[in-house]
Amino acid sequence: MCLLQLLLLLPVLWGAPLARVLSYPLELPEAVTVQESLCVLVPCRFSYPWSLGTSYMFWFQKGADTAHDPPVATNKPEQKLHERTRGRFFLLGDFRTKNCSLSIRDVSMGDSGTYFFHVETSFSEHSYLDKMFSLKVTALIHKPHIPIPETLESGCPRNLTCSVPWVCEQGTPPIFSWTSAALTSLGPKTLLSSVLTLTPWPQDHSTTVTCQVMFPTTGVIVERTIQLNVTYAPQNVAISIFQGNRPALETLQNASSLPILEGQALQLLCVADSNPPAQLTWFRGSPALNATAISSTAILELPGVGTAEEGEFTCRAQNPLGSQYLSLSLSVVYPPQLLGPSCSWEDQGLHCSCSSRAQPAPSLRWRLGEGLLEGTLSNASYMVTSSSAGPWANSSLSLSEGLSSGLSLSCEALNVHGAQSARVLLLPGQSQPRAGWVLGAVGGAGFMVLLSLSLCLVFRVKTRRETQPVQSMDDRSQVVGSGSREHQFGTDTPADSPAPAGAGPISQDECQLHYAFLRFHKLKPQGREGMDTEYSEIRTHK
Q1: 0.70 exceeded by the pTM?
Q2: Residue 108: which of 91, 87, 92, 81 has the closest Cα?
Q3: pLDDT on residue 408
Q4: Which residues form the Ig-like domain (predicted)?
């Protein structure tokens, strides 16, 4: 019994120096790694035989003097701690259970280093210098977590939650902030999460939302950015108009009317803004229920626009969320097409009429010599009457005075897409003064008479003592766009006289194109009693 008491008193008699030279077991990891701004728990268990009186535990950074330097953590009340670690390093253990575990919160880069454990009792103290641990602090690589919804429907509010589950709740709460172009409002918040209420619209599709987390103790900032996938019905439907490989002539976003020159080729491209992408379909007119589409692609080809293509074309953009329509009305335009003029002798003079069809409707005018007559007007010498209906324009001219040899008369039709004219010359009669004036056509090349014939022709000229009324034979040629058309009116020779004797049918081999000069022999005056016929041969030159 006395020997046991003596052994217990030895540490008191010898003091601390003896305790320091003794070695006691310590269970502690040699190295611990942690990311900046996070928390770490360093597990520790120790063995120390002396527990008489009051006992305390301490953690010091390597190199510290336990007698003078402040510890980084301790369970001793009122003990001054290291300024850098105050409020972040905590000794969680208990001397009686021999637990020396160390908790470090809001770890900073300056915490990197080596640390050792130290104990003190009323009669002894001991530093575990043979068993220390090394703390390594690395940069924070964790990022906030945001569950990304597959789709967000336009106009429907949704909650986005930003959380940092890898942060310990014992540390200083992080600060959350959001950045978004969409309409947002903040929802409920916890220590480690923040909720954003988002109401997306079509313009928010493909935009981003960023959640930023800042750790106030270390100043470290981490963030995560997500891209919004907003679904919405088709909108902003537009039709672009192309001709060939040239750039778009025009892009229409509202129902419009497009004038197009007859015969031109068109490509109509329909586009729409939607998510998911819209199915684009073309219809003729307005699409009714179960209407048949004329094209199921974005491009509608119109290789040659004519009056059959005139009217409305509608593009429909449709996806599961809705549909939108845009119509284009094609108005086919073309230059004047002249009909006439046709002229006839009447009791009070010469009467001519002229008609033209065009889109837009043409204007008609008469050119008499150097004078220009248009509209509806009259005087003692002439009277012009004009009218129009739809694409047609009509005009008539009556001449009672001022007819002279070589006077030219023409009808002109014009609109913004072209012009066309036809001319008539007044020529003097050659044999019968009472026959008045003869109407003839003059070609642009200056020939007196130039005819294109598909048959070998034999003309007969019948001379009568009595003057016959003037009759017209039309030999017309069309000019598309801008040009002229000439008319030839026959002499006072009737068209229904019998063929010359001996004239047989014309063979197929003789049906060739000829140019003929007409030569009329001098007519012999005859009495009314014997209306003999005299024939004159027309010589043709190939």
Answers
A1: no
A2: 87
A3: 77
A4: 17-134, 144-227, 247-331
> From CA 466, how far away is CA 310, in angstroms rounded?
56
Cα–Cα nearest to 468, from 438, 488, 440: 438
> What pLDDT score does 259 carry?
87
**Residue 273 region by backbone torsions, left for phi larger than 0, else alpha for psi between -120 and 50, else beta:** beta
What separation, in Å, do the N-terminal and C-terminal C-alpha atoms of the chain show?
A: 162
- If one counts every other C-beta atom within 10 angstroms of the C-beta of residue 452, the result is 10
At residue 536's C-alpha, the angle toward residues 535 and 542, to 5°, is 140
Provide the token pair at 224: 């995560």
Strand partners, 378: 383
Listed as ranges, residues in the chain with pLDDT below 50 are 1-21, 429-482, 486-542
Task: Give the tokens for residue 110.
Answer: 């300056």
Strand partners, 352: 343, 397
Query: Residue 145, Cβ neighbours under 10 Å: how many?
Result: 14
The SS3 of residue 109 is: helix
Per-residue pLDDT tens for 435-456?
233 343 333 322 223 223 232 2
Given this model, what pLDDT does residue 380 score? 67
pLDDT value, residue 427? 61
Find all residues with CB under 8 Å of 48, minimum gap 6, and list them.
24, 98, 119, 121, 126
Nearest to 38 by CA among 169, 223, 194, 189: 169
Q: Provide the residue type at 164 as one letter.
A: V
Q: What is the pLDDT of residue 409?
A: 82
Kindly state the helix (H) or strand (E) to which residue 12 belongs, with its residue range: helix 2-14
Write the single-letter amino acid at 186. Answer: L
